[in-house]
Known about the structure:
By secondary structure, this protein is of the alpha+beta class. The chain has 8 helices and 14 strands.
Amino acid sequence: MSLPLPRVRSIRARYTLVAAALSFVFLTVVGAYLDVVTRYKAESEAYVETERVATQWSAAVRDGSVPRVIPTSSRVDLIQIIDADGHILGASRAASRLPPLTHVRPPPDDRFKSLEECSPDGKCVMLMAIRDTPAKDSPFVYAGLRVPPLLTDHWLEAAITACALPVLILVTLMTWSLVGRTLRPVEIIRARMSEISGTDLSLRVPLPPGRDEITMLARTANQTLARLEAAVKQQRRFASDASHELRRPISGLRTGLEEALLYPDDVEPRQAIREALATTDRLEAIVDDLLVLARLRAADPEPPEQLDLGALAAEVAASRPVRPPVFVVAAPGVLVRGYRIQLIRLLENLLANAQRHAATGVRIQVRAEGGQAMAAVADDGPGVAPEDRERIFTRFVRLDDARRREPGGSGLGLAISREIAQTHGGSLRVEDSPKGARFVLRLPCVPCVPGQPVGPADGR
């Protein structure tokens, strides 16, 4: 039964092992190739040299000019001339005291023969044997040289291994060092991320130098932390504002009910019930708007659809009260992609706010402008002071005029409207107007068809 190998969990160790394994395979292949090539080249050169010397003295034998002691002028120092009976007719100084170098006798039809002879003590000689003539009593010429020590006893393989081993160790150490240096910023990022808690999101991970993937990861992590910090701050502020806004009507409701219970003779029951219902209506409106804000942050189950913003504005205007009147001026072909229910809610909030403050009427203008769909809702009321134009989009903020005109409002309508606009990739702000307030909604436009506004249409 084989035991499972332990799994290496460290990326640094895994990459080092892979690099070492690949380097080992590569060096093994290269070493084997060098061994084969070196041996082949050495043997080829040796046999070419022995053949040249043997051929030279074979010609001398035929000419009858062979001395008793054959001189040598190359590394081929083993030369013997042997007759058909095995007697040595001539030899070089190095081979004169040696027995015949080989007992191989090339046949008449194959006069040249290369071979390797090894003695009992392990010493080998590379030989070229030449039969001088095809005659039966032809002498034989042998020329040879001892095999270099590098090619015997696996010295060549040992030398190649001795050269490859430091390379393998160097590659392994370099891989370990480089991967460690590459992953060091990741470890720093991990350590910093472990310090970040839900109570303190102000910390950021350090950005490594360069523009590689780890730097992009750190930058994305910081951007995510910034968004998370902003969302948490917004939620905390929202929870604080919501609790503060809900506490007042709940306290008022409780006080009214306690008075009705403690002083039944001084409190008219029907009046107490009507006041409690009015407070309940306000609480219900606040809770409903809070749920709308919560749903805006969640994914919409329905995919966005292509909508005609002018037709949608006319539809919403038609559903509003007839006083004060709403007039729609819409260019054709102003198309946007979005969620129908949300955009209807946005336009309803803007129209409700405009009708609440209008003196004689409200005007909606829809057109394509600068590659965007623009819907402007204008009234002829008192308008919004420049210093309050951003503050009115804050949750639960209600100006004195709004509190006077609608005491039971939640203060979330305009905040919801801006949230919807931003969810659709657009914007909602208050812009300058000759008279009254002018709320301008801008949304990304599905390739709009520029057109002139159609004639005014009565929203009634």
